[in-house]
Amino acid sequence: MKGLICAGGTATRLEELTRVTNKHLLPVGRWPMVYYPLQLLQRLGVREVLLVTGQHHAGQFIDLLGNGHVRSRMGDEPLFDLDLSYKVQVEAGGIAQVVGMARDFAAGEKLVVCLGDNIFEHAHADAVESWGDGALVFVKEVPDPENFGVVVYDDAMNVTDIVEKAGRVDTRYDAPPSNDAVVGLYCYPPDVFEIIDGLAPSSRGELEITDVNRVYAQRGDLEVRRVEGWWHDGGKHWADLADVGRLIEETGANK
Q: For labeling, which of 4, 106, 149, 185 is most exposed (least CB within 10 Å)?
């Protein structure tokens, strides 16, 4: 099992904070944001990690993270100890495109994908350890499902589909069919790259990770687990960064 961190994007919603740096390098609590998904992967037992970012900030990630062996500057304890490599995404093409860039890196193994701006109270190690042969995603009930990819259930609460931003991106639905948003932690078997090869760009010109998840859902190979504790998307608003930093101090992260 290998790990992928998606850490690209321009993050214009964070306004002036990302004018000269990548959002995943911004401070959240006592750490840069990207430390949290790296620590999560280590808690899951992943050793080899690929980080994909844009060409303008790749050097900053290398300066910060080096080869993945990072020790605290206060006390010298290891923060994470990973075999870290890098790839550059030249232009934005969607999360599924980033996953596709990990084909050679994955080399036939299962792949755990974490968005670099998603932070979790719990690492969900038990759920990943029990992961079977299909794909595994995590969901959280949200008050604004129209802004997310959400799960579609049948009458027996079986997963049948995934809808991305209902009414705007996916026009098959006028309104979200549920409030269960798929968060930025995905687990894929080796055939994910074959699925990506068959994707067409969405209406916004990107390869959507929702379309990948939909293939697994429609063929009955998508397992859905609920997020334990809190989850935070660090790319939504600059004011959230301080709030989640305080939350991490209170409860911890990646437990």
A: 106
